[in-house]
Amino acid sequence: MNVHALSASFYDKFELSLGHQRFDLKTLGGDIKMNIVGAKYKLYGDVVYSLFPQISIGLQYKTLEDTAIANALGAKRTSGTDIYFAASKIHLGAIAGYNPVWNATVRATKANELGLPIFNTVLFDWLCHVDCYLSKFVPSTRRQIKN
Length: 147
Known about the structure:
Number of helices: 1
Radius of gyration: 19 Å
Helix content: under 10%
Distance between the termini: 50 Å
Strand order of the largest sheet: 1-2-3-4-5-7-8
């Protein structure tokens, strides 16, 4: 998969993003191209400095450039919207000087079914799911200054 993206943040509260994904289908001889436009608003907290996680709400509008594969898989549409609610937190130096990072996202989608960009087959109208992860530890950048 190839991804190109651009995002801009305003006043540490609001974010706009544009993205383009290309899924290479080497065995089938083609690719699936999808464009994504997103917006996110921070409701509470800070991912680094607040005691509690940063809470955000957002949406993404996704559309396919080529509809042939989606239609062959039974898609009802070739564009759709995700609405999500996310919590994220970095714990600075929490484990032996390392910074664990976690995120949990609840997403309602009409645009992405089970990880495939086929825009909901006849089985679902809205699909809800939860994504959670804990990252590998990121080394702290603290340095000791000598006099």
